[in-house]
Amino acid sequence: MDELAIEVHDLRCAYGDHVAVDRVDLTVARGELVALLGTNGAGKTTMLETIEGHRRPDAGNVRVLGLDPVRDRLKMLPRVGIMLQESGFSGELTTWETADLWRALRSRGGDPDAVLERLQLAHRRDVQVKQLSGGERRRLDLALAILGEPEVLFLDEPTTGLDPQSRRRTWEVVGALVAAGTAVLLTTHYLEEAEELADRIAILDGGRIAARGTMAELVAGMAATISFLHPSGAPSLPPLAGSVATRHGDEIVVTTPELQRDLRTLLAWADTHDLRLQRLRARDGSLDDVFDAVAVAEPVAA
Ligand SMILES: Nc1ncnc2c1ncn2[C@@H]1O[C@H](COP(=O)(O)OP(=O)(O)OP(=O)(O)O)[C@@H](O)[C@H]1O
Predict the structure, then answer these.
(1) What would the pLDDT profile of 52-100 be if each residue is shown by its tens digit?
(2) Whose CA is nearest to atom 24 of ligand 1?
(3) Which pairs with CB-CB distance under 8 Å and at least 24 residues apart come from 137-142?
């Protein structure tokens, strides 16, 4: 069995003269979740639509389960689940009728009641879709995408509009599918969603992959920071070799390659001078920092 469920090689997609996806490579293995992040207009949706077979690439190669998503569409569809940003289901049908219709259309099998139970929609099975709340509809979208346990799952911003509890429940369901061997390609604007779920992360910017790797690999190059309110009348800071201290209003921010060493030095300095460091915070580099670095590096139009 092919270990790679999704293979994208040298993909290029353009709208007229505008290149939306520019020579991108990406793979997702079975049992792996890859999160595609990016600024607005970075090309995530275009890329996802092309991998799903809704658009033909202008150049490059896409394979899903070894199949060409456009040419072999009918063979591919029963084996994949797709959760779009907006679903176009009739509001007149009930939740259960929608799931049952979807099962018949996708000829993929699966038990509508089981999947509704899994997404905590069993109590809403006989309610018309138009009467569901926004969050319930989003959960129904996911229920339909995972009906019949697809081998590959595409999730386009799956938790937008969900409350924290529903979001966590969604993460549990997706995590269980990945553990059972499903390959998942996810786009999201929630960095904590990528941190929670992704085995690997790719950050798209202006149609190109600007950064990629595991969470650990991505944040490895990011400096840690220590911040605190500058105590009034405090003497100058102790020497912190290789670190940079800046002042933002009343706050001191130390950017450091040696978090533990500098924190120890600063606490000793505060003890010696009998200072209280208010709003003291120390943290490692984060995905936000990686994302900011990508966004900041964006060329400014002349
Ligand atoms: N139908 C279209 N015709 C022309 N340009 C388009 C079309 N759809 C998208 N674009 C452009 O292609 C680029 C990529 O858009 P895309 O929707 O793929 O980005 P995205 O990363 O999904 O953005 P968002 O996070 O805002 O949803 C953008 O510059 C967008 O304006």
Answers:
(1) 999 999 999 999 999 999 999 999 998 999 987 776 777 888 999 999 8
(2) 40
(3) 137/87, 138/162, 138/166, 139/166, 139/170, 140/87, 140/89, 140/95, 140/98, 140/99, 141/83, 141/84, 141/87, 142/83, 142/170, 142/173
Q: Ligand 1: distance of its center to the CA of 256 in Å?
A: 37
Say how many Å lie between the CA of residue 39 and the centre of ligand 1: 11
Average pLDDT over all residues of the chain: 90
Number of neighbours of residue 103 by Cβ within 10 angstroms: 18
One domain, residues 80 and 194: yes
In this structure, which residue's CA is closest to atom 5 in ligand 1? 15
Q: How many folded domains does the chain comprise?
A: 2
Nearest to 25 by CA among 6, 39, 3, 1: 6
Q: What would the two tokens of residue 161 be? A: 């509009």
122 shares its domain with 99: yes
Within a domain: 296: no
Task: Kindly give the number of the ligand 1 atom that is closest to the alpha carbon of 16.
Answer: 4
Measured from the Cα of 189, ligand 1's closest atom is 25
> Distance from the CA of 95 to the center of ligand 1, in angstroms?
31
Q: Does the Cβ of 46 fall within 6 Å of ligand 1?
A: yes
Asked if residue 232 has its Cβ within 6 Å of ligand 1, the reply is: no
ipTM, two decimals, is: 0.95
Q: Do 71 and 190 fall within a single domain?
A: yes
Atom of ligand 1 nearest to the CA of 207: 14
Does residue 183 sit within a domain? Answer: yes
* Host domain of residue 251: 223-284
